Amino acid sequence: MKTINIDKKYIGRDSEPDEIEVAQQKGSYLYSRRGKKYVDFVMGWCVGSFGWDNENIKKKIQNFKGPDYVSPHQLYKPWVEYARELESLAPKKLKKSFRSTGGTESVEIALQAAMSFTERQKFISLEDGYHGDSICTRSIGSPEYGKWYKNHFSAYRIKPPLDEKSAERVALRLKKRDIAALIMEPVICNRGAMVPSQNFFDIIQEACKKSGTVLIIDEVATGFGRTGKMFACEHFHLQPDILTLGKAITGGFAPMGAVLMSDELSQAMRYETSYYSTYGWHPRSVEAALATLSYYSENRDFLETNTQEMGHYIVDQMSQMDFKEEPRFSYLGLAIGVSFEDEDYGEKIVDKAKEEGLILSEGEQGFTMFPALNIDLATVDEGLEILRRSL
Ligand SMILES: Cc1ncc(COP(=O)(O)O)c(C=O)c1O
Question: What is the pLDDT of residues 23-50, one digit of tens each?
Answer without folding.
Answer: 999 999 999 999 999 999 999 999 999 9
